[in-house]
Amino acid sequence: MNRRFSLLFVLAVVAATSFAAEDLNGDDLIIQQVVDTDNLLNADHHFRLFKRKFGKSYATKEEHEYRFSVFKTNLRRARRHQKLDPSAVHGITRFSDITPAEFRRNHLGLKRLRLPSDANKAPILPTENLPADFDWRDRGAVTAVKNQGSCGSCWSFSTTGALEGANFLATGKLVSLSEQQLVDCDHECDPEEPGSCDSGCNGGLMNSAFEYTLKAGGLMQEEDYPYTGTDRGTCKFDKTKIAASVANFSVVSLDEDQIAANLVKNGPLAVAINAVFMQTYVGGVSCPYICSKRLDHGVLLVGYGSSGYAPIRLKEKPYWIIKNSWGESWGENGYYKICQGRNVCGVDSMVSTVAAVHTTSQ
């Protein structure tokens, strides 16, 4: 009886502390994850915290009620994701008030295409002496996390991230490149795939963007051609302000050792992934039991680790380190960890490496 009383007392103290934190910390709240409960009795409380933390407001009462209903549905989705992906943490994110369809339309943007049949294949590299852990962020080849906003332009961020890294290896300088140039100016198409053209906020493909960059001569800096998050502008490409150019690009084998070897030798890699678990992802190593390999999101592979602890499986799991384009408030400061070993969510299916040449701006 005493043990039961003690447990109830501890739970009461935790609950009181949580509500006190709401009053004391204002907008700097850490939103409590609710995926371990079987009811939504506190959904209104969590919705209030969610709106405050992410600065959400709605124009009408009807919109507010609709978003609250979507929020409750997404709490249930997060709970399902937690059960399917127990080595990660799933819960409330900045996307918790939008539907999966809105999420796909506004925050993804990879064209669902196969790679061109004539795509260059990366040469097979030796893999015997690869480091156990590797991260290009520690070596100066990765720019700060960016935010694509409500525009399906993920493909452009994956492209610039890979070329930023390649340009760093070629020149020793890290320069943030322009996604907006790709959004406004890149309409490259795969002649074998009808409707495959890069289309601004309506999606694109990294290899097509590399092809455009090769033909155009290069990409401008972010500061010279800043991101607007829309595709309603005209192309403002200025060849005299090219900051990085593509020498060549190629597709990497599905073999994970080859992916790691190309990452270590050639810099960050442009990668496609299925993002279904990313809408509710909070942190940890994502290793879902079941995940579609239908690719719908372009991201950047920047490193890998050998010892991401998966408590449900009672063993260490190697993982990839992914840079995303949804800002630093998402995931682990804008990054996603996904386990290696079985092409989880298609992460090994479409991997491209690019080499850069230096072009002096005039």
TrEMBL record:
Signal peptide location: 1-20
Domain Peptidase C1A papain C-terminal span(s) in chain numbering: 130-355
Keyword Iron-sulfur attributed: no
PROSITE patterns: THIOL_PROTEASE_ASN (PS00640), THIOL_PROTEASE_CYS (PS00139), THIOL_PROTEASE_HIS (PS00639)
InterPro entries reported in the protein's UniProt record: Papain-like_cys_pep_sf, Pept_asp_AS, Pept_cys_AS, Pept_his_AS, Peptidase_C1A, Peptidase_C1A_C, Peptidase_C1A_papain-like, Prot_inhib_I29
Lineage top rank: taxon: Eukaryota
Span of domain Cathepsin propeptide inhibitor: 47-103
One GO cellular component term noted in the UniProt record for this chain: lytic vacuole
Any one GO molecular-function label of the UniProt entry: cysteine-type peptidase activity
Membrane-spanning intervals of the chain: none
Record family assignment: Belongs to the peptidase C1 family.
Protein name: Cysteine protease
Species this chain originates from: Actinidia chinensis var. chinensis (Chinese soft-hair kiwi)
Organism placement in taxonomy: Eukaryota, Viridiplantae, Streptophyta, Embryophyta, Tracheophyta
